[in-house]
Structures
1.
Amino acid sequence: MYALVDCNNFYTSCEKVFSPALEKKPIVVLSNNDGCVISRSEEAKQIGIRMGAPAHMIEDLIKTNQVNVFSSNYTLYGDMSDRVMKTLSAFVPRMEIYSIDEAFLDMHGLPQGDLLKLAFTIRRTIGQNTGIPVCVGVAPTKTLAKMANRYAKKMHREAGVFWAANQRLVEEMLRYTDVRDVWGIGHQHSRILKANGFNTAFDLTRAPDDWVRQHLAVVGLRLVNELRGIQALGLEEEQPAKKNICTSRSFGKIITDKNLVKEAISNYAASCAAKLSGQQELAKQLRVFVQTNPFRAQDLQYFRSIIVQLPLATASALDIIRYALKGFEIVYRDGFNYHKGGVELSDFVPADAVQLNLFAGENKKQQKAMAAVEGLNKSLGKETVKVGIQGFAKSYKMRAGMLSPKYTTKLADVITIKH
């Protein structure tokens, strides 16, 4: 048996934890640059706010219904996610963190009769420890557990738990679930399935193996077997190393000043380097790009990127910034209204298996200096020490005009209790 634990409306739930007055109020969280809706409370859903709706197109709806609007506070959400996952890890010996607000738990070896009780205990404990409401789905395979979680939300929301404990309950859930809502079935495949008479997940379990293999390939056959209760997917306890790392942002305003774009690229390069160093790998290649806003028809449009081969694989912020800026000088052109830029690292090699270059040896002093900088930033806070070219003002930063405090990670934002 597996369990899938999913936080309900996670971003808006995080905002509610620290502002009890928001309970039962419509809330939305917006994407980068306060662009589109990426999280909605149940109350916001009920008044018709759609996921992905551009904020500027629902201003009247927001005003009329007094919707509470927040900018994305990823620092807060990441920390709250960490607290939820640490709570979950105390219940089972093995788990897979699937996303910021979801985790699969391995229930094998646990007493079968206790699974329902355990699911309710998990839900209650997370609520007590973090204030975040969750739903728990328990079933024989990961795909069915994912479905059971959705079924709990749709049909047993008050309880927040569904255990597909026997074939009758599994079949009930399969018959209820539209084939397009099956985990792993995309829009294109759902059209093919419906055109061939497979309308529900239960219908799909009856599909001939040869037909499934022909139309959905081997991956699709694994999925169908999971729906049949045959385990085909195991837990991924170790997060696979990323094959590339990219930091790109839309600027908070249109930028025509080359130095400001250059500063942004420097910070994006430093961010990539920090992520890479945590992966214990080095990069042999980077890409830099800048672009205008394609939605501003009145502007001259420009997009250009360049790939830079690094002479020696590195994770040093100094090296990555230096070569990113060399690429920037090539792609940048005066006379454009810049809207976005980014840096991407790729072609990784293990840090302990670097092929040295005859003409570009290792700089031991630089390595020690960067190790010291990383140590200071880990102990004293992100970007306490950084390269001068990164600047301090960050006037290019994304808009976040409705950002809530960093309640759990910044001392000045910790809630104080008044007597």
Note: The radius of gyration is 25 Å.
2.
Amino acid sequence: MSFKPLKIGKYTIKHPIVQGGMGLGISWDGLAGNVSLEGGLGVISSVGTGYYEDNRYSAKDINTRPLNSENFYSAKGLKAVIDNARKISGDNPLAVNILYASNDYERIARDACAAGIDIIITGAGLPTNMPEFTENYPDVALVPIVSSAKALKIICKRWTKRYNRLPDAIVVEGPKSGGHQGFTYEQCFQDEYQLENLIKPIKEEMKNWGDFPLIAAGGIWDHDDIVKMIELGADGVQMGTRFIGTHECDAHDSFKEVILASTEDTIKLLKSPVGYPARGIRTNLIELVEKREGPAVKCISNCVAPCHRGVEAKAVGYCIADRLSDAFLGKKESGLFFTGANGYKLNEIISVKELINKLINGENS
């Protein structure tokens, strides 16, 4: 099968492959810039830009961690990531992923627009007011992540009524993705919530609103998976974990080593301060947390609203901002390592160029 380009708003993506936004610091300028350069859509994660090397700890901090959400989601850091990614990608489109659960969501969206981003992708909640924050940037394409036809209906209804606009594309994410899920623990294992069974009802709902592309995400690994999703009605795919296995991925070498050493049995759904299960690797941290012996929860960065300034973090046993940043910094003992369900399949580190060639033409190309 030859794949058609993916059109998102005014932007045309040569290959219908969107690289998933992975935070903290896993998809920044190195990965996103090179994915866009090679004809996919590179996606920068807005999470933890206070840790970005051009900006690190320049704001007020405690114990070298960004203090409060305005420093954790640093505008200066985000602009530096986007600018440096643009130096790699050239004129090709670039996207940013912003969690709707983020404290300062509105400000982060405005920061991304001001920094010249082309596309904003948002999940971790229903972004019913997303267009409000990009009104001065009509060329910025808006892509919500949904996990049901009901969620899509709510977004389209509110966007149409309030802003007279529709999504420029949607990402439909199933429960095999890495990181936070849009499902309960039980739903993650039920047939009706699997990605292949979500596409049809969401496509039916899309008919009520207009013609915009559907991007399938969650557990997609290779060329054959992409073909399967397109045959089911998707216009493109989003893939995160597979891109960790590239030289250009911004993750620490230790992070990549943890993924490479994972097995099907060590990849689990974990409890999270965000309130929904998150998929990651069972490491030393998780064992400590289960024994209530994990690192102290201090809530320095105040990263996500559902955590209620550390209340949920203390209940679960770890601070998600601190533990994700430790993983980014290569601290295997205290880091939290997110991966999709197929992360155990990763067995080599290759270039982004080689990976996209395999995805488009088959593994043996």
Note: Residues 55-62 have pLDDT under 50 and may be disordered.
3.
Amino acid sequence: MKKMLMMAGVAMMSSAGVVFAQGLQQSPCPPGSTGALGIPDQQKAAQDACTMAYDVYQFMAPQLGVALAGGNATIGQGSVLGGLGHFSIGVRGNVFSGQLPQVDQFNPSPNGAQRTTLPSKSQVLGLPTADAAIGIFKGIPLALTNIGGIDALVSATYVPTINSSNVSIKPSSSTQFGYGARVGLLSESLVVPGVSLTYLKRDLPTTDIIGSTNTGDTLSVLNTKVNTTAWRLVASKSFIIFGLVAGVGQDKYDQSASISATVHETFNGVPISGSTSVPSTSQTLTRTNMFADVSLNLPLFKIVGEVGQASGGTVNTFNSFSGGSADRSQVYGSVGLRLSW
């Protein structure tokens, strides 16, 4: 029995080691040092707060990528438009149940980075997007369909400025444009479904995120850039009154930021202040994306609903979050209108 308990203990320790290995083993922020009287210098005093700011960036960046990329490149549509003279315009909102770090509840230590669980809360997140498709080439005709049709795709995303009591989000511009293309593998007809391959590049404007704790410490994620590229394999079929679309693809998020923190703490009764930074950090995440659209086909436009899921990839943080891991799978939804002619 004793041997069995020892084996079980080793297995549990190994399992714990695997979980631990998934996170950062060391803080990405400068460690600083301790003086002769045991008082930390500026860098050491601010290292824990800087690490928390880095983890906030790691935690939020994938969520921003989901809000930006969404699912279908043009919601409710899976076939090429049919060449020159054909256009499609749509608006939609990509929304999901995200997690926002509660920076005001963070308690940075003045004695260097300390591994802990940072509080976060559920919050509906999303971004409004407008897009357009322009028919370029009808394709090569076959018996019941065309192949090789081409559409040009453009999009515009609105990014609001947010100011709350403890967090501010300030984009350099409120609007960012994207571009891409759709290639028709099969053009939809009465008996043939539409099948297409799309590529779309969408980016967020450079954004500053600044949060404050209740003790007056400042966590800054500056010059944040989120660049996404997405390809989709999409199939669609219209049944007069309603239409169905299903697709699968891959998203790639390329993200970068400058991380810093300034703290005003007390160490053994001695007030200390400090600041430190990570001038440049980056993250690349590749995720699988699956989605389905249902549209109600009205005389002038379509009303479309979409549901999808983005999953996969690894995001490492030093601390953990109460709302789950930064690379957890994310279910999202979209509602939109589309006008085509």
Note: The CA atoms of residues 117 and 220 lie 19 Å apart.
4.
Amino acid sequence: MEKNESRIRNLRQKMVELGLDAIYITSAENHLYVTGFDNPDGYVFLTQNNAFMFADPRYIEAAKAEASPLCTPLEKPDLAKIVNDEGIKVVGYEDRRLTCSGFERLKSTLGDKIEYKGIGDVLTEIRSFKTRDEIENIIAAQRISEGAFHHICKVLNYDMTEIEVAAELEYYMKKHGSSKPSFDTICVSGSASSRPHGVPRPVKLEKGFLTMDYGAMVNGYHSDMTRTVVIGKADEDMKRLYNTVLKAQLEAEAAVREGVRNRDVDGIARNIIYSAGYEGKFGHGLGHGVGLEIHELPVLNSRVDENMTLKTGQVVTVEPGIYIEGLYGCRIEDMMLVTENGGELLTDCPKELIEL
């Protein structure tokens, strides 16, 4: 079955549940999810009878060739006519994505007789459950990322700058099938490794921890991994810190399965880190969903609703870290698929302490 058929069918069923006659889809990720075509400047108007996809002259030819046959590409949309022809009274919109000016344009186009309803996280919640083909795309992207890690460990030298290491990772991924990096590559060494989202600097690698957080993209799907290595030799304090992070990750990963509370998985890693004497040094959540966005539902942190549990088909990262300001930091990150019987590790990359 054409994959977009089931996606559109599910959305139409959700429209019935929410009392919607149409959904106005504006975010690039949800556009790709519904149509199968990547157009960052397009939008979709989904009704119970049609899926209209609007593309300007830059994209219209590609849209006709590449989008799902269930979607009708239009270069000059007439939303008001579509609404009138199909008797649409209630339109849902992405209230967490659409800008205020975009919403005002929509209302001026369709008029005041239409009722507008924000749909919140409806689409992102649906997207949090991955089909087999989505998982395969994520795994393909992850394998490219793993290849980049093995490559950088071979070519890395003390004369390289953080920016050069980041560029080498991205170049390798691009050469091996990634459409682009999942996000701006994080590559920080020495004292800067205490910055969880530090920006690569034009300075030679400092001795100590080197944290590399990066990912590839395949068919719109992201991968996400972090590995921390040591430039030079690790002292006993560094080894203890690294092994604490690794223990926290392994025990949290062992807890991932259908029905486990999201905040409890975070708590397992956090308790290990805090009990080892690093209270307050793990400042971010344990993980997040990965798919068409690098950060999407579900989330693993201590602030999530206490009734939220992991569900089969979700993909999450498990990425504990310890960061000591001005000294150094370490993070290790894998991706996992949630199943009824446990978590399936999607990352296949060494994580023992490596000294270079």
Note: The CA atoms of residues 93 and 315 lie 26 Å apart.
